[in-house]
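Re: weekly structure request thread

Next one in the queue (92 aa):
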Amino acid sequence: MADIWNDLFDGNESHVMRLKSNLFGQVVDQAKVLNETMTQSDIAKLLKLKQPHVSDILHGRMSRFSLEKVIELAERLNMEVYITTKMKDAVG
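Done, posted below.
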């Protein structure tokens, strides 16, 4: 399967965008669950955001948020975020 992030960004930036996209998707899913029983204003208070930013999340507008902000939002939604690393194969 083609990786859109590799097509749009080079090397390390594609990894960051893939990480951000995956985590943001989980934040969106959880925000939608909350929106079934809470208003956007209530979710905004929980996430320490303004209501229009909650709308951005619910509509999947990832570009409005930095990776750092997405991590903060995930943590405010009671998610544990882990980033793991491994060495690339040696070149040469």
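The two ends are 28 Å apart (CA to CA). DSSP finds five helices and no strands in the chain.
Next request, please.
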